[in-house]
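Our consortium's second objective concerns turning raw sequence data into structural hypotheses that experimental partners can test. To show how far this objective has progressed, the report includes one record in full. It was chosen at random from the queue rather than selected for favorable results. The single chain below, 171 residues long, was entered without modification.
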Amino acid sequence: MIKKLSIFILIITLFMPHNSEANNYEYCNSYDLKFLFKKIYNVELCAEDKKMLNYKNIYNQNFSLTIKYNINFTKKELVESSLSEIIRYNKINNTKQEAYRKILQNLFPSVQKNDIISAIYNKNGDLQFYFNNKYYSSTKNKDFNHNFLNIWLHKDNKYKKMTQKLYENRF
């Protein structure tokens, strides 16, 4: 009887949706991004070590960046706005821009209000994406992964208050 129950629990566990690793981090900082008094999304940066939540050290540890959307965006809107932000902080040629566009098209779904996208970064430079706490996609392109995450984490971000809040003013 116990053996059958154990097998049953194992089978159920294997087929249950798994939460993203974002819930495993102890230290989190968040920020509500607003535009013209309208909340666009909430972004949350979580890490294993609070001391590492700064621009100089963030990529030396595992961390997550989670966005809960407050408005709808099409996949195309997310791809193009992300690419535009990446170009803002990085000099990349047209060939690399097109390569990044293709990566972004594989990473993003369209989102509705209350949808959540989590980007889980590991210190090896890999990035996994979860959509509403279910695995969605991944990329091992370290150059892209840093440039993509720097949309929110770059020290010279155009949304300075957001970056300061995510890092708790530790630059």
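The partners drew two points from this record. The first strand starts at residue 27 and ends at 35. The first helix runs from residue 2 to 15. Both points have been shared with the crystallography group to help prioritize constructs.
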